Amino acid sequence: MTRKYAITGTGLVVLASLLVWPFVGPAVRLGIVLAALVALPVQIVSYALLDRYRDEVNGFLAAWVGGTLVRLFIIGAVAGGVIWSRHEAGLPMLFALASFFFVLLLLEPVYFRRGRQESS
Question: Could you give the CA distance from residue 90 to residue 16 in angstroms, rounded to a whole number?
Fold first, then answer.
C-alpha cells in the first residue's frame, strides 16, 4: 500500500506543480521543486511507518506523533531559513511545502481504508 501511496502522492505533487508552473517565475519554480523534494520523502516515510505499525497501538501512535513532529520541525526550519536568507525562492518554498504536506496528509486516510479492506 505504501507504494501506491507514493505513486499517487508523487502524481498529485507533480500535477499541482505543473498547474502553477506557467504562471510563476523562476524563483517560485525553484521553491516549488525544493518543497517537493523535501515533502515527498518525508510523507512517504511517515506513511510507511504508519502503515507498518497499523495494528500496534503504541507503534502507530509513536509513528504518528513522530511524523507530525518531523513535519513541524521541517516547516519551522524552512521558515527560519527563509527569514535568515531572505532568498526570493524561500517564501514560495515554504508555502508549497506546507501545501504539499497538507494535501499528502489528506491522502493518507484514503490508503489506510483501502489497505484495511484489502487485508480483510
Answer: 18
**pTM assigned to the model:** 0.88
**Residues 39 and 100 sit within 8 Å (Cβ to Cβ):** yes
Residue with cell 507504494: 3
Q: Which of 83, 114, 93 is nearest to 17 (CA)?
A: 93
Residue with cell 518531523: 70
- What confidence tens digit (pLDDT) does each residue in 34-44 have? 999 999 999 99
Domain extent listing, the chain: 2-119
Alpha-helical runs (H) found in 1-120? 2-20, 26-52, 57-85, 90-119
